[in-house]
Amino acid sequence: MGAEPIKIGVSGPFTGGSAPMGVSMRDGVKLAVAEINTKGGVLGRQLQIVERDDEAKPERGVQIAQELINKEKVVATVGYINTTVALASQRFYQDARIPVMNNVATGSVITKQFAAKPENYVFRNSANDTIQSAMIVEEAVTRRGFKKVAILADSTSYGQLGREDLEKALAAKGVKPVAVEKYNLKDVDMTPQLLKAKGGGAEVVLTYGIGPELAQIANGMEKLNWKVPMIGSWTLAMANFIDNAGKNAEGTRMPQTFIQEADSPRRKAFIDAYVKTYNPPAGRMPSAVSAAQGYDSVYLLAAAIKQAGSTDGPKVRAALEDLNERIEGVVATYSKPYSKTDHEAIDFNNTRFGEVRGGRVVVAK
Questions:
Q1: 244: which residues sit within 8 A by CB, 6+ positions away?
Q2: Which residues lie below 8 Å from residue 306, measured CB to CB, with a gap of 6+?
Q3: Residue 228, C-beta contacts closer than 8 angstroms, at least 6 positions apart
Q4: Which of 35, 94, 260, 333 is most buried (CB neighbours < 10 A)?
Q5: DSSP state of 323
Q6: What is the CA radius of gyration of the chain?
Q7: Largest Cα–Cα separation, the chain
Q8: For 64, how many CA atoms within 13 A lie in the half-sphere containing its CB?
Q9: Which string of b and e fits 168-207 if b means at least 16 CB within 10 Å?
């Protein structure tokens, strides 16, 4: 009998509007697990993932967290795409003293939810919304000189917390938006919101939402014969935004931690492995950021388990907070990515602007 495998939970939306992010994240995780297992695993044991579709629903995320902890006995979980799901579910990991690695969700409050506790089990390796909102505003107001700004954000925690971060970043530059509009998931007509933005004289639209509704914004602007730039959070890179918006997506800009360009041997190997294994349409990852961050999250976790010499939750948490090994990921090379008081691995240095060009995201010039 071989040693028992080390079980790691993977929780994300593998169906529905958020699926491009969830599936890409899961597939990135699987690539990392396969690579680590081929090299002998961790502590002489194979990694085994236990994946669950949370459908981007908080109540489903809560059920899954309890199942992974109590029934599957996972030693950690990676995932969470949707801020709303993360905030509802990660308390169970905190209570069970099991690390949870948010590898896609970006709500600024996620890693602060239990920051006041003596031990915080919530970590992240995605660019939080404080970073993204500052970058979006810098691009729109400082770099491109727009004075009249509109914000369109969805009604979820993700959209509304992102909107708050945008408004704070704008206020710091002395800019008050001419329109701040909300919409719901599955809305197909953004005309009322866009008319308010247009009526206010907006020169740029800043967005916080996910692919399907972001496409409705871009297509709605076309219907109104009103074309101003769209600059928004990283989700403007989602395949279901780019494909549904078509030519109306062209030129859209968003912060990215990873762009599907083979600009280093490590990234080239990862992109080649992903495309060969999963054969995505036109060779384009549905959400390159999610795939890359999913991949890196496993390497960070594996390094912590190895350093701890154990799968015990408190020991793995302590190792994450003081990682000795330098980890060459595909988003970044991580050197002491976390500390006891800082559970964010990504900062401004790891994030740059992407732009939609010809149906793909490329580095913005």
A1: 211, 212, 215, 216, 219
A2: 42, 43, 325
A3: 202, 203, 204, 205, 221
A4: 260
A5: -
A6: 20
A7: 71
A8: 29
A9: ebbeeeebebbbbbebebebeebeebbebbbebebbbbbb
Q: What is the pLDDT of residues 154-195, one digit of tens each?
A: 999 999 999 999 999 999 999 999 999 999 999 999 999 999
At residue 64, the 3 state secondary structure works out as helix
Torsion angle of the four alpha carbons 24, 29, 32, 34, in this order, in degrees rounded to the nearest 10 = -100
* pLDDT tens digits, 201-257: 999 999 999 999 999 999 999 999 999 999 999 999 999 999 999 999 999 999 999
| Tokens of residue 245, six digits | 């918006």
64's tokens: 């899954």
Residue 113, SS3? Answer: coil
Whose tokens are 């810098």? That residue is 138
What residues have CB less than 8 Å from 98, skipping those under 6 apart?
A: 69, 74, 75, 76, 77, 121, 313
Question: What is the rounded distance in angstroms from the CA atom of residue 66 to the CA atom of residue 49?
Answer: 16
- Going by C-alpha positions, the residue among 131, 139, 137, 88 that lies closest to residue 106 is 131
Helices and strands in the chain, H and E counts: 12, 14
Task: Give CA–CA dist 72/19, Å, rounded.
Answer: 24
* pTM > 0.90: yes or no: yes
Cβ neighbours of residue 8 closer than 8 Å, sequence gap 6 or more: 33, 47, 48, 49, 50, 74, 75, 76, 77, 78, 298, 301
CB-hemisphere CA count at 13 Å for 317?
20
In tens, the pLDDT along 45-67 reads 999 999 999 999 999 999 999 99
